Amino acid sequence: MLERVDREGAYSGLELNRTLTEAELSRQDAALATEIVYGTIQRLNTIDYVLEKRVKGWPRKVEPWVRSLLRMSYYQLRWLDRVPAHAVTDEAVRLAKKRGHAGIAGLVNGVLRGILREGVAPPLPAGLPAAERIALEHSHPRWLVERFIAAYGVQAAEAICAAGNMPPHASARVNPLRAERGELLRAMADDGLDARASELAPAGIVASRAGSLAATPWFQSGELSVQDESSMLVAAVAAPQPGMRVLDCCAAPGGKSAHLAELMGDQGEVIANDLHPHKEALIAQQAERLGLKSIRTTTMDAAELPDRLPPGSMDVVLLDAPCSGFGVIRRKPEIKWNKQEEDVAALAALQRSLLERVHSLVRPGGTLVYSTCTIAHEENEDTVRGFLSQHPDFALDSEWPEEILNALRRGGALPADFEGMAQLLPQQFGSDGFFIARLKRRL
To answer: Which residues are catalytic?
Structure first.
């Protein structure tokens, strides 16, 4: 799995789902494999900093499978305490012999035993610039750390990076058409799950030591959907009412579309559009599992929607735009290594063009919600401000549900001059980093 992510740019989550399904490991072994894969990718910068001092030509002149073997072995030695050091080393040498030859096995043995002899966590040099120190301590690209510092300051930037290496907790959204949150929590407690109501999302629950919530009977029966707490806020901020026509421009895999339909009592119409035809089935499956009849799927580029739908025909338009994903690094750690600085400007240009296209579908007096799972100002506040400067018929709308405003206020995520847009950082609630803006089209 690590080699495919390294060589082919594969997505860690998809690789894990596919490979662990095929391997049929015990729950305990699957959890360990998941920890090793995510942890090794998360800590890549720090791992390579240590290994480059011990392996000539590291990393590019070393065979990819040897790179992955040494990286995952060092990750276990430094950050895991469940596997004894001698077992990590012996297993790495055995794998090196099995896949390579005695010379590679000797290299692996020498590197790992040298690390154990001299200390698995060598101290960083004193006096490093803040960006370089954070990049090495919390394993993020230096250019990304510098961006975070410029946007949020050194202290917040370090907290963002630290949060990016924390395992995400399990969270789910309760389907009010099939369950009540308090009753569902009591059922989970009776079944031995440690679950509580989300302090951030009105429909959310958070569980610990619960395994996969998608494997529970409540998921199968459509009583809940797996979703991050921050992501749950988007549809709640849109606040659609029964009987409305609602458009979700970039809908796959369908979580926000389903939430919109649930909030509407499944009365009205939710058009769930996505660019990719193979993802249309995912949205339809969500709707069927949750018993939602009001969702209609379409497949096209979001920029083409105004060519297919009448202008001013939607009460609510949600543009959950393609973005750099810097708010979900803890879930997709390869993002920080696969993205380049120039990608941010390209994505911001795409977001501006999509807003320019889909805003005409909002009826006078209707709502436009713009959201991303990133924390880059260019893709968020700057994009919204730029749009508003070109479209005086739209204005920010601060009429968010009071329950959400209170939660954001408690977590320090509601600016004192709140106008109708908010940036959630990953360290504030232990949820994903998310940006949400609610705009109203003037009558």
So the answer is: 373
